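Quick one, T. Sequence first:
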Amino acid sequence: MLAAEAASSAAAEAGLEVHVVRSRSAVQGIAALAVFEPSAGGRDNLIAMSGASAATRHGAVTVAVKESLTSAGSCRPGDILGTVGGELVVVGDDLAAVGSEVVARLLADGGELLTVIRRCRRWA
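Structure tokens:
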């Protein structure tokens, strides 16, 4: 956010209208971009994009790299961790089961679209 705010300030000094749309995850940024309307004014887009970002629930599945005691229980390296809204909610050993639990929690209050972003890693 600091870099975005600095860029916004620099652009404003150059006479450009720039607004920063806050998001906590990539999928929230994608939701904000989806409602951008080129013909609308900056303020109207800021309101629409901020609303879309804020309304988008987000979760993640990752692999633990160290032993830890978490809010969802203890984990060891290699355990599968599931988060919703930035909070660790499930620890398990089965990727599909943890992923399913994250999706179930994301959709528990309803939803019309589920976007999955897969980050690929190259192993040496």
